[in-house]
TrEMBL record:
Keywords: Membrane, Transmembrane, Transmembrane helix
Species name: Gaoshiqia sediminis
Matching InterPro entries: FecR, FecR_C, Ferrdict_sens_TM
Gene3D superfamilies reported in the protein's UniProt record: 2.60.120.1440, 3.55.50.30
Membrane-spanning parts: 66-88
GO MF, one example: sigma factor antagonist activity
Location of the Protein FecR C-terminal domain: 223-287
Domain FecR protein: 102-180
Protein name as catalogued: FecR family protein
Xref: PANTHER family: PERIPLASMIC SIGNAL SENSOR AND SIGMA FACTOR ACTIVATOR FECR-RELATED, PROTEIN FECR
Amino acid sequence: MFTTCKISLLSTMLAIFRIEDKVEKVIRSYRVTELTDKEVVFHDILKKIEEGSYNRSGAKAILLSPVYRIAISTAAFLVLIFLLHFFFSGEIIENKTLQANAFRLPDHSRVVINANSTVRYPAYWWKREIKLQGSAYFEVQKGKKFIVKTRRGDVSVLGTRFQVAETDRDLLVNCYEGKVLLTSQEQQLIVNAGHSLRLDYNGKVSETSESMDYPETAWFRKSFSHDELSTVTNSLEDFFQIDILIKTTQPKHFTGKLETPDVKTAVQIICRSLDLTYSFQTDEVIIIHEKRGR
């Protein structure tokens, strides 16, 4: 009796492994295009898995024992759980503090999320698309279309700096560089750099073309008094979400006030004050070092 149960358990485990291996091959061989809707992909994969359970040669169906039926049901359930996690899981960034918080998306775009605001985006980043509740400032890396979805409309760009703020009364879009496209249920509107557009709850649009400064949340403002250079760069790293490497032979100290929405400008001020120079190793890694010949 013990031997029979042991063999049945082993057979069940082998059956599960074989089924999971087939399912994994189906998933790994599947390719998702940029514009494919996730629900369509989900049902398509399930269809392929179902088709794979039939004999392709057209042979007669084989009756499975209860043990194998349980194994197949278990494997199918595990696969379903995996697919649900794959397609519907995501990241949620919620700012409940009174200060703005900065972070970077998987494509390295920078987001400064304001107080009492929430950003949601999929864990699997094949589409550059996020959902926003509240207000946030964006510095989008150039590339494929980037979409910010709100209740009143979608804001899409290819690469630019802009701000989106949604309240119960209206939706405000400020464009600082490049251009953005606002799509609502009623219309599509282009917002150019230096322009601001407001869409109220009735669908009424108002636009201004006054010279606009970057929002307060985009500005780095801090004073230093004979602080170590590493202390200064640590503050810049936290705010701009980048890495700054210091390669100097002697310790350096900085005194001054930094007010800028751009990390490059901040580093230029520091280097000019300390007679240093800098270089970009990547878009997100800056090296501060001594000038050549020293």
